[in-house]
Amino acid sequence: MHLTNSTTPVTVRQRRLLRDASLALGCAALFGLLALLVTGHWHPLHELDQDWISEFHLYARDHRAWTAAVQTLSDIGGPVTMRVLLGLAAAWLLLIGARVLAGWVAAQALVGWGAQWALKLAVDRQRPAFSDPVSHADGPAFPSGHAMASAITCAVLVGLVWYRVDRRGRIAACAVAAATMLAIGWTRIALGVHWPSDVLAGWLAAGAVVGVVTAVIEIWRPGALARDVRRVNWRTRPRVQRVIVPSVRPPRVDEPLEDAELDDPGADGPRPGRS
Question: Which terminal residue of the chain has fewer beta carbons within 10 Å of its beta carbon, N or C?
Answer without folding.
Answer: C
